[in-house]
Amino acid sequence: MEQLNVKILDRDYKLACKPEEKATLLAAVAMVDQKMHSVREGSKLSGIDRIAVMTALQIAHELITQLSAPAKNLGLDISECQHKIQHIGNVLDAALTPQENLF
User: GO cellular-component terms in the record (predicted)?
Assistant: First the structure.
């Protein structure tokens, strides 16, 4: 485990993480710090616990909104994807059929 010293809303925190998780954890720290500063500046909240709760609600809302968005919001058309998968299957079948005669 690797120890990280980070700052969120002007407070120091020590975190532990696996080396391969360091980059994403630092990105999460930056996101939380930015959102907490935004909540503090955009409201009359002063207690860090209330700012943390409001920030957690914002992040949870964003996540739920993204997870519940249909695939079309991601620029994907399901029928188009199915067609492409079928086409890839046909190409593979055509390429592998001559190989079967070798065995």
Answer: cell division site; cell septum; cytosol
